């Protein structure tokens, strides 16, 4: 009898308990979208589209303005280099020796009491 009890206990231990299989439920609840929700979704979509249009338009105008600013800066740099070149030419032409040479060529005489100092800009 003891032997039979041991066999019965061993059989119980060996057999794992099986869980009942869960079948997916076939009656799914379908969510209905009301007309109000449709209008809200439509309004949200229109707002998103309008905002993206405004953002893109603003960015393109900013890009155009930046491009114009860069073009103006390039022109300013060119003008500054031209001004520097012209100023160096003025400095060369205003040298005292050159002015004296041109004056002598034109037949002018140097009179020390009439000489005035002119400040250079």
Automatic annotation (TrEMBL):
<keyword id="KW-0812">Transmembrane</keyword>
<keyword id="KW-0131">Cell cycle</keyword>
<feature type="transmembrane region" description="Helical">
    <location>
        <begin position="39"/>
        <end position="56"/>
    </location>
</feature>
<dbReference type="InterPro" id="IPR011922">
    <property type="entry name" value="Cell_div_FtsL"/>
</dbReference>
<protein>
    <recommendedName>
        <fullName>Cell division protein FtsL</fullName>
    </recommendedName>
</protein>
<dbReference type="GO" id="GO:0051301">
    <property type="term" value="P:cell division"/>
</dbReference>
<dbReference type="Pfam" id="PF04977">
    <property type="entry name" value="DivIC"/>
</dbReference>
<dbReference type="InterPro" id="IPR007060">
    <property type="entry name" value="FtsL/DivIC"/>
</dbReference>
<keyword id="KW-0132">Cell division</keyword>
<comment type="similarity">
    <text>Belongs to the FtsL family.</text>
</comment>
<comment type="function">
    <text>Essential cell division protein.</text>
</comment>
<keyword id="KW-1133">Transmembrane helix</keyword>
<keyword id="KW-0472">Membrane</keyword>
<keyword id="KW-1003">Cell membrane</keyword>
